[in-house]
Amino acid sequence: MSKTIWYQIYYQDKNLCILQTHGIQPEIYKLLKDNVFVLISFSWVLESDKLQELIKFFPKGYNTKKYVYLLVNSQDEFDMANGFSDLFNIVLWNNACRILEKNFLIPDLKLYKMKPREFKCVMNSRLTKFKKHYLTYNIDNIAYITMTDKDPQKSLCNCSSNVICDQCAFTPIELKTVECSKSPSSKIYTNINANKICEILDKSDMGIILSPYEGACYSSLEYLCRGLPVISTKATGGRMSFYNNFNSIICEDNENSLKDAINTCLIKLDNNEFNRKKIREDAIKKIIYFRNVFISITDEIFEMYNINIVAKNYFNDKLDDFTFYQIYSNISQHLDIIKSAINNIV
How far apart are CA 254 and CA 201, in angstroms? Predict the structure, then answer.
């Protein structure tokens, strides 16, 4: 049994139960029966071996084609998952639409036009090798936002010299954090809340994200919701779903291409080709589009059961619950809650 489960009971009555789960939750799936729908979203890139494994967790005789919806984050994943369309309903959406955009509201219109800003770039990424912080090593004026279990008052690494760190206690040698960086104007922020993140975004010209694969990627969407254009490398996963020619530049996976993209972005900001207000508005339109995908699924289910509920109104009433998954560590207690909801069905 896993240590945690991520789920929500979206709707229940004596005839129907709609569950949401995030990631693959075998402990929940083995409890399912007729008239229990499960909508499964994913925080990471979905691969075919995971789907081959997933089918094993459902009870014998449970009609997965009728009751199970896989909500995948990108077109590539959708195309792959369609190979399993005889077993599941495959739906293209993006899990980042769970972001509560009001947390990234721009309260002062002056912020749209504020320049120059303190930081050229902001990079909100965990300190792990595949995030490729090292591509920013020779770029100045970067705000790094990250999380760590270490005491945030202490150094993130043990090196004190202005060289690539080869004795870092926190990250592998390939990862050069700002503490090992050549830029005295860069800063690192650890374990900060959403309000502080917004403050840092508002001090930055653009956001950068360099990992080759992601899931839905909240940090990229947070940039856009705050009116920041994004510099991104090509990536597998859902973050590319939010990019267009007016809010992002896709660069190659090397330092020179990243530098060129940053310079091009600054020019586009200066001539208003990258318009912060439009960037935010386009991001919110995309969020609403993906939320409507979810609403349409529940609308079909309500109609199937002759339930007199307006799916969009029901969704809006539950929006605050929808925008995050509660992570439960007391597995047995919450499995009992799920069992009760399922057993309530006549």
Answer: 24
Amino acid at 131: K
Tell me which amino acid residue 199 is: E
Give the pLDDT confidence of 78-133 residue by residue, as tens digits.
999 999 999 999 999 999 998 887 777 766 666 666 667 889 999 998 877 788 88
CA dist 301 → 12, 61, 92, 93 (Å): 12, 20, 17, 18
**CA 222 – CA 106 distance, rounded (Å):** 12
Q: What is the DSSP code string of 181-223?
A: SS-TT-EEEES--HHHHHHHHTTEEEEEE--SB-SS-HHHHHH
Q: What 3-state DSSP class applies to 5?
A: strand
Q: What is the pLDDT of residue 331?
A: 72
- Residue 227, sorted as left (phi over 0), alpha (psi -120 to 50) or beta, turns out to be left
Collapsing DSSP to helix, strand or coil, 282 comes out as helix
Asked if 214 and 190 count as a contact pair (C-beta separation under 8 A), the reply is no
Task: Assess whether 265 and 315 both reside in one domain.
Answer: no
Instruction: Report the pLDDT averaged over residues 206-228.
Output: 92
Phi, psi of 65 (to 5 degrees): -65, -30
Residue carrying the six token digits 């403050």: 199
Q: Nearest Cα to 211, choosing from 127, 119, 287?
A: 127
Question: Is residue 280 one of the residues assigned to a domain?
Answer: no
The domain tally of the chain equals 2
Residues 52 and 27 grouped into a single domain: yes
Domain co-membership, 239 together with 181: yes
Per-residue pLDDT tens over the stretch 164-215? 343 343 343 334 444 555 566 788 888 888 889 999 999 999 999 999 988 8
Can you give the residue range of the structural domain that contains 105? 100-274
Residue carrying the six token digits 């967790």: 57
